[in-house]
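Consider the following assembly input.
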Amino acid sequence: MDVGLEMEFLNGRLHIEADYFKKNTTDLLLNVAIPSYAGGGTQARNVGEIENKGFEFSIGGSPVVTGGFRWETNLNFSTLANKVISLGGLPRLGQGTGVGAGMSTTNEFMLIPGEPLGSYWGLKYLGTWKPNEADAAAKQGRVPGDPHYQDLNGDNSITTDDFQIIGRAFPKATGGWNNTFSYKGLTLNVFFNGVFGVDKLNYTRAAALSGSGDARQFILSEIRDYYRPGNETSDVPAFTKTYQPFTQSSRFLEDGSFVRLKNVSLSYNVPAGLMHNKATVRVFASATNLLTFTKYKGPDPESARVGSNTDTAIGIDYGSYPNAKQYTLGINLGF
Amino acid sequence: MKKLVILGMAALLTVGCKGYLEEDTTGLLYGGNVLSTQDGLESALTGAYRGLGNQWTYGFLHPSANAATIGSDDVTTHPASNKADWREFDQFNVSTTNQRSGAVYNGCYKAIQGANNVINNYAKTVGTKATIDIIAGEAFFIRGFSYYWLTRFYGNIPLVTAGEYSADLLTIKKSTPAEVYALIVEDLKKAETMLPNTRRDPGRPNAGSAKAFLADVYLTMAGWPLKQTDKYDLAAAKAKEVIDNRATYGFALMPTFAEVFANDPAVAIIPESVFQINGFTGGSGTANATYGNTTMPGEEGGWDDMFAELNFFKNFPEGPRKDATFRTQFGLGATTIPWQNSLTKHPYYKKWYIKGNIVTSSISLPSVMMRYPHVLTIYAEAKARGTGGPDQAAYDALNQVRLRGLPAGAKALAPGDGLTAAQFADAVVQERAWEFACERTRWFDLIRLEQVEAANAAKSPDDLQPIKPITKANYWFTLPYTDTSINPNL
């Protein structure tokens, strides 16, 4: 289903577009895991139904047209909510990324009817055990300063039975804002894009902060804040003999929302009269990824994922290469 | 010199759309077609071995099985670093996503699947009957061997005897250790009659290997959890059969302990090897990582994965065996430091150093899954705990192992020393601890004799401690989450 509205005002100087869509996809082809005792691996099966719905909104136009100056702008914004409707009878279905190297201990994503695609599966991190919680910590064999995970089933033991949905890998909304300013031969283009309401599982940070996988030392400056006498408010665990880290926890799940100045470019067409012959000359300077506004602690909230880069397993940052900042200077000559 | 190169055979599981596609399974290691020929059966068997040895992924060619058995008192690991999955075993806090025990689990079931394929089809194979029987005998051995590891790790497990996948397997229930052991004994009994006295390759079993493992299985069945004490006599008799026919099977006790652990990649098999899984650097994922890096200290470029527990080292009797077991001076160059001054402040296991102290994690050396002195000690202990108590042969068996490890001139134990049968049996168990230190043996001894708690109580306070008091629940690991999350009946 798609309902849309398109409007234009002021001789085309303002246009607005709005859409609402809802789409159900059935007979999804998903990889269903086979137990190791039965051969392991996965089996591609047609299971389940997914619902996608959302709004798309766009507003644009030419707010300023005066003299030789012109500003054209376009802002678009879309939301997406998806939901697993059914898994063909399966109560849930894990989807992993195969990060390996001691990082992922089990599937990072769990498909559960009623929940969105890209639901992170892991332990809920409650910070470090505090001095006044020593008794409760002791029941789990821990001491204050050790990582404190939510013991969902209350058996005083942190296991995969305590795993739950801890976040969402699909952004709630995305947007873009494009602007072009022109004055005589001069053109300035400024483009922002943004992603909102998304969690990223920062395995890169986890590896550098938990002594897991191939990283054997704590190598981020964040570790200086570790829990110790006088610094008991810290949620960076202490160095103890009962320390047991789980990388697949909300401790390393971060808000991956960002707004980024994706592109800015300035160009100038040298007036034809200035040249002796009939050459056309354009000089330009541009920069991509110049500014990023985010709370994400990794090098790049937008960087590529790892493992099985499919719709059902996204959003994990494990040593993924960040998008580069690029500066370009150029001259176009035409004869 | 022949080397068994285990090639990976991809068993292609295909899901056909019946009625749309007629499958021609020629060339696939699946279905009745291929297994009707002797070559096909042999290939399927090779695939079964692959489950036991896939470096870093599953099986026994990397230190996963070592990690999973460090709840014993001979081995520990780094208190920090990236050893969380190792510490879980030493501290009795094993998560269901632990990839170490998981690697053994996955590998054993891979091997079982391959073995099932051979076992369920060999009767229909056309070819030389003598050879087909050997192939099937090896498959029975592999299946018995794999289930033996599985039930000792996990207790109640899915007992799969089908070679082909069916949807029924997704809801299979667990079988009890009694049911699993019944199949293990049955398999090893078939293997001992079908296998030849001389192994076809260093990495394959012979009749003696099957008998030796059967003796070990009986010894374990006599202890926890089954406690079928009548099995002690069977264990002693079976071990005696191997000892009496050791020349036939090519087993021998080597003159010095140091020779056993020379770890020379040029030597494919040592006379003490009862059964081994060969590592080979020439293949893909076939090299062995249980030597070198894993048991070397950081000071020598090692990974500090496993090293000796302090009290175990302290109590270890002096002699050539102690000298060859432990590395106490670290440094590969001219200057060395004593273990007390090292970062982890523990002695390390020289046993797993490669000849020439090569620093690597990929080497052409075998994972020896049982040594001949193991058989000697099975006999000595089982005889002592069985009908009639230890005889002179039991003393001889123990003395052979014991005296080789002690300084020249050490006194042999004799019936006249006044040990009761129980004291003698305990002495054998202690001897096994020294002889097979860091060889994935002590953990299983402590379990079957219900001594895990006592052994861990005697740890040095400077070693890692159990996170919570040890109970019988810690004797087995919980089945891997990968499987319990799929099959609700597990």
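Chain B touches chain A through 46 residues (CB under 8 Å). Ask yourself how this observation constrains the way the partners meet.
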